[in-house]
Every structure is written in C-alpha cells, then in structure tokens.
C-alpha cells in the first residue's frame, strides 16, 4: 500500500460485505485464507486437530466481528494472520500451562521459550508465503537446492547482481521473524509484502 488511507479495494469490499452479513463473502474469505490460517496454527501448535479448531475460531471471529478489521491498518491477509497467531498462542499457553499444573515437565520459562520459538517459526512461514514469487524462488534455490547466488542466477535465468539482490532482500524479510513487539508478539507485517 502506497498510502495508509488507501487500502486495497478487495480488502475494503470484503470487510463491507462481511459487515452486511453476506455468507458468500465469508466463503470467499475462507477460500482465500484457510490454508494460511491452518498452516500458521499448525506451525504454532504442532497438532492437526488443534489447528482445525483455531481455523474454525478465526473464521467465526471474522464472521461475527468484521468491524474489528480496519482496512486502513493493513491488508486483510495480515489481520487474519495476526488473529490466527494470537489465538494459536493463547491456545498453546493454555494447553501447556494446564500440563504444567498437572505435574508436567518443564517450567514457566520453558513454556515461554516454546511459545517464542513457535511464534518465530509461524512468522517465518508467513513471511515466506507472503513474499513476492521472485524473492521466494531465489530463497528456495539457495536453501532447498543449496545453490549459491551464481547458480541461482543461472537457474532463474537472471543476472548475478539481481540474484544477490533477491537473496539479500528475502533474507532481510526473513530476519524480521525474530522481531517482537512490546508484548512479545511479532509486529504487524510491513508494506514490503
């Protein structure tokens, strides 16, 4: 978004349609974001059933509280991801705290460390899936194929300098996965996405 006061048209229309109670809008929103929501929830919780539950909770919240999304604050995708992250972390904390209370292994510090690690991993997944395809393709070549920038340039049929630029930018975006806000929650995604 070039300006904070000019949200993408689709996001604005979707929020309006949800506010009017259009069931078809919820279906479109689900089709667009369900895999993102489920993937992030699964990454935080490490449990398929729990991720299914979070996915349901997220879309119930979207349906019942469409006014809580403000298109001027950023993309709907980012808001849905943030909501997913928050609910998944709450569920992880509740589950792990209950396990500790029942004599489970670990300490509250271990719990916070697990929550932080799960949050970073989920944010990194979101960053990778949200970054532009050329950046993601370069990172995939470098990481999964173990290619250097010269090999990546040849594989993608681009200049070596462009391969280096893409890798550098992709890694810079990924490095933000470790950043947290004042509450320990990762910050909202930046405009670069």
TrEMBL record:
The RNA polymerase sigma-70 region domain, residue ranges: 30-94
Pfam family, one: Sigma70_r2
Entry keyword set: Sigma factor, Transcription, Transcription regulation
Signal peptide: none
Entries under InterPro entries matching the protein: RNA_pol_sigma-70-like, RNA_pol_sigma-70_dom, RNA_pol_sigma70_r2, RNA_pol_sigma_r2
PANTHER family: RNA POLYMERASE ECF-TYPE SIGMA FACTO (PTHR43133), RNA POLYMERASE SIGMA FACTOR SIGZ (PTHR43133:SF62)
Name the record gives this protein: Sigma-70 family RNA polymerase sigma factor
Organism: Streptomyces chiangmaiensis
């Amino acid at each position: 978004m070039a300006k904070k006061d000019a949200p993408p048209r689709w996001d604005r229309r979707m929020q309006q349609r949800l506010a009017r109670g259009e069931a078809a809008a919820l279906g479109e929103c689900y089709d667009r974001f369900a895999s993102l929501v489920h993937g992030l929830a699964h990454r935080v919780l490490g449990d398929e059933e729990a991720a299914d539950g979070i996915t349901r909770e997220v879309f119930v919240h979207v349906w019942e509280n469409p006014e809580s999304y403000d298109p001027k604050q950023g993309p709907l995708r980012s808001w849905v991801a943030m909501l997913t992250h928050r609910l998944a972390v709450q569920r992880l904390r509740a589950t792990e705290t209950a396990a500790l209370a029942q004599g489970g292994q670990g300490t509250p510090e271990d719990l916070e460390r697990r929550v932080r690690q799960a949050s970073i991993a989920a944010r990194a997944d979101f960053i990778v899936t949200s970054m532009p395809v050329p950046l993601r393709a370069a990172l995939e070549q470098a990481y999964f194929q173990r290619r250097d920038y010269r090999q990546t340039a040849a594989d993608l049929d681009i200049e070596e300098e462009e391969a280096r630029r893409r890798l550098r930018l992709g890694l810079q975006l990924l490095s933000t996965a470790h950043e947290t806000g004042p509450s320990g929650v990762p910050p909202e995604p930046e405009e670069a996405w």
